[in-house]
Amino acid sequence: MDLTIRVAGEAGQGVATIGRLLVQTFGRMGLEVLATRSYMSRIRGGLNWTDIRIAEEPVFGPARQADVLVALTDLAKEILGPELKTGGLLLYNGPANAGCISIDLEATAKQTSGDALYANTVAAGAVLALLGYDSKPLEALLEAQFAKKGAQVISANAACARKGAELVAGQSAGPAAPRPGHGPKEVYDGATAIALSAAVSGVKFATAYPMTPSTPTFTWLAGAAEQYGMVVEQAEDEIAAVNMVCGATYAGVPAMTMTSGGGFALMVEGLSLAGMMELPVFIVLGQRPGPATGLPTRTAQQDLLFCLHGGHGEFPRAVFAPGTVRQCYDLTRRSLETAHQYQTPVLLLTDQFLQDMEQSLDRLDPTPRPIDRHILRDPAPGYLRYALTESGVSPRAIPGGPAFVVCDSDEHGCDGHIAEDLDSHIEQQNKRMRKLDGLRADALGPELYGGQEAETLLVAWGSTYGPAREAVDLLRGSGGSVALLHFSQVWPLRAEALKPVLSRPRRVVCVEANQTGQFATLLRSVGALGEGELLTNYSGLPFSGVEIAERMAR
Amino acid sequence: MKLAPADTRPAWCPGCGNHALLRTFEEAVDAAGIDRHRLVLVSGIGQAAKLPHYTKANVFNGLHGRALPAATAIKLANHELEVVITSGDGDMYGEGGNHFIHAMRRNVGLKAFVHNNQVYGLTKGQASPTSDWKMVTKVQPQGVLSLPLNPLALAIVQGCSFVARSFTGVRSHLREMMVAALRHRGGFALLDILQPCPSFNRQNTFEWYRQRVKPVNASHDPSERSAALELAFTWGEEIPIGIYYRCLRPSFEAQLSVLKDGPLAAG
Known about the structure:
Shape of chain B: globular
CATH topology of the largest domain in chain A: Pyruvate-ferredoxin Oxidoreductase, domain 3
Distance between the termini of chain B: 42 Å
CATH class of the largest domain in chain A: Alpha Beta
CATH superfamily of chain B: Thiamin diphosphate (ThDP)-binding fold, Pyr/PP domains
Oligomer: heterodimer
CATH architecture of the largest domain in chain A: 3-Layer(aba) Sandwich
CATH topology of chain B: Rossmann fold
Number of strands of chain B: 8
Helix content of chain B: 25-40%
């Protein structure tokens, strides 16, 4: 059983705050939570909403329709009211109105606590009561959240939460609500899971030029800089950011930057530099729809081939694409480990949907556990930074020790100095590209959800995991024979291992948030996929499981 | 094809100011008592950017125009390193212009030595950001229409903590300026080094500079911003060389509490 609450209103009105209160409360109650954010590129006005889906069993993607709509404005009521499920409830912020439960949230907050600011708490209290939940967990959350602000703020908030509940008491019963199935869980969004994992893994230098949807990761790192001993610096542009990461990794510290497609476009020369200098550069690319500035606050999976091919010349790289918030945490560490093991750039490909998506999880461990930087501690006299090796990985010393560390963006000899000698070029180019063999051998294989024998196979990558997985459940529930093959690492691919799954005679459908089927193109280019259908969504909003299932059934 | 071993001997033209510059640099590093193993030379692309290959030090020879962001992060990752940038007028003031402005704002303890020959050498003779107005080149056949950038005035206005100019033709002065920049402890130091390009700049020749450069008057007080600006705007019949400006402000790294316990790179 699951249920979705949609909180909608203008930017700056508290949509995100109400959402956060409810999400945290539900997590503390022991419900499974998944929340997604939809917002416009503006600071005031417009129409933003947060969808909070709660359930007894884990949920992986957003629902298409809401069971409860909290409309903070008339516009929210007009546009999103008709999208409510049949029998759903509409809580309207305003005067009595047919078909709605009406509360003037600001006036209620003012009357109850003397401050209209607590309108958000009134709304959260009312929602909990409508679903038949006690307001105690919300009050406990408020107490923890406002501990530093003192008893008066806490009691004013608690009074507002109770008042919200009181005002909806006696309303007709809302939709049947899920019952908490376990103890409290924490709720994290993708952006935070990435940042926390980076800090835990020993990132000591982070830099970015702010760009939606990657900014929350950068903000979290800045807030944790003292705690984890990191330098977090805002760069003058993305070119500076990536070159700073090159400098920091040369000097020996794990470092990262984060951006979106437009910023990454500015970074690609630096990415190529990391490939040439063999630096463990880590970049988080949170996608949004392009071309150009595109739809800055929406979601897409349009930069797969770009991040695979971005950067002049040929050099090895790995690209990870998490499908869940937990994978954001795990694959950030794996990205950093891979970058350091192979001394080459690694990308983590997310998008607005996943960056902003919140999921209830067991607590993610915040204890520092630095990755192995693979640094040679005592380089011998005559140390060569780019010594030829079978794996292509040369022992890595850092400046400040007994050996001179010479790195060049020009082609170089084993000693790192400029070499225009063509034999050296071939030796070094082959050495660099040998690392791709190791990267490929270590690559994560895809996850198969559903049976080996399924007659229809959905193929998805990155953030489309949740919706595609839920589509499999829906289709199987109605008698279909469907499975999902999900890739959380999209490069390099082990084509031979994929062929048995992908070449079995059956319907294969690539589900992607882009127009041209970029992952399908990639699979074909390595010979892993023959024919195959595309099921695409480039609307700017994420897939839902229901949407995929309906389009598959057509 | 086996062409030549790694390029560790100067490939500059005879008469290039870089030869004297390199010799002076070696002397200055020794005079400043810098441990070569703690020295990192960071450069971009151009003739100046090749200097790190011709000496003993750690080297980060990165992308055109991008020496400053790389150097910034190297210094922040390990602030016990001495980080010196060897760059040219195109690399620093053209391709890297945005980084130049922001490096001065940040005031990370970097030493930027800019070999300023007012022309592009490696690409064979196009105008640089500091080329004189109306200088004729193959790409600017009607002469350069834009006014030259004034890097020293810009640096002074931006509050750069150390601003100086020298000339490769007066090596004792150049050495003195380099040592002063290397010993500067207040953050970012800019040393603009006038340098003739005998192959591509027939206008601003060795003789042209030699007749014009004149040491800054001993009475000049480098903490006086307006007097420093006067010097920066003096260009033509007379070109002052020396320390134009110095101001006391905390370096970026001195303001970072996370660096108090030692370099981040120590792990």
